[in-house]
Amino acid sequence: MRNVLIMLTGLAISLALFTTGCKNTEYVHVGPNWQALHDMEPENDAFSVSVTGSQKASLGKPLSYTVHSAKTGKLWVVQVDPDDKVSVIVPNAEMQDHQILKNVPLHIPPRDAHWEMAAMEPVGKSVLGFFVTTGDEDIGDILSQGQGTSKAIRVRPVSGWGMDKMVVDIKP
């Protein structure tokens, strides 16, 4: 009987850890821009884009990312900071060529770069969106989807895009 009680207690603890420890992280959205980018999902027929890299950093510390895309296209990196301000990180003055090749990792900053990305103010959680477009779309075409679309007929790009996103926590 004692062994059964120990086993049931262990099972209950395991179940409690499993059901509470495996939930997605929930964030307090700081504003409509942060929430819109955080909640944005590509269309069902979108191609795969994945990113790895810095998720936490202290002020002044370098940040780096590696992006993989299932298609060749243009990479756009958009940030919404803890003050709900939107900025385009890539392309930038140092990385004007933002082409990404199919199944070839792209490093940001590039490994041979003479520049770096660093964690700066404001501190807190920023959301980064990594978008790859395959046609002539500009990042504005992607970010404006869903806004003002009450028309029965509208022009929309057909070339497709993929995305991944990441929350980065900047600490003092």
TrEMBL record:
Keyword Disulfide bond: no
PROSITE patterns: PROKAR_LIPOPROTEIN (PS51257)
Signal peptide: 1-19
Keywords from the named record: Signal
DUF4384 domain sequence ranges: 59-134
Pfam families: DUF4384 (PF14326)
Signal recorded as keyword: yes
Name of this protein: DUF4384 domain-containing protein
